[in-house]
Specification:
globular; five-stranded mixed β-barrel; alpha+beta; 32% helix; OB fold (Dihydrolipoamide Acetyltransferase, E2P)
């Protein structure tokens, strides 16, 4: 049984990926990211969040990721340049977020 649990834990770790980009709320994903503010992202939390990658692609976060992101945004001291490293599992076009780390 322990071997099976160890294998499951390794499979979960192996499935995790990391992306870097700019965190933005869904409602503002097509707008100018350089002028997008933390205040706007917090105010628009109901629509959820995602990450704009270097190639311009937007990848949405799952509900848990939305909650984690909102919590991090509320603690963040800067108002712009919402770049982050996100760790999780890509499921279709949604990231099942394990961690959001603003950089």
């Amino acid at each position: 049984m322990k071997a099976l649990l160890g294998f499951v834990a390794l499979a979960t770790v192996a499935a995790a990926e990391t992306w870097t980009g700019t965190v933005v709320d869904v409602m503002c994903k097509g707008k100018d990211l350089a002028s997008h503010t933390r205040e706007c992202a917090v105010a628009c939390a109901k629509g959820g969040y995602g990450l704009v990658l270097a190639d311009g692609k937007f990848v949405k976060f799952d509900e848990g990721g939305n909650a984690r992101t909102l919590g991090q945004l509320k603690k963040l001291t800067r108002d712009k340049d919402l770049k982050a490293k996100v760790t999780g599992e890509l499921m279709g076009d949604v990231i099942k977020v394990q961690e959001v780390e603003f950089q």
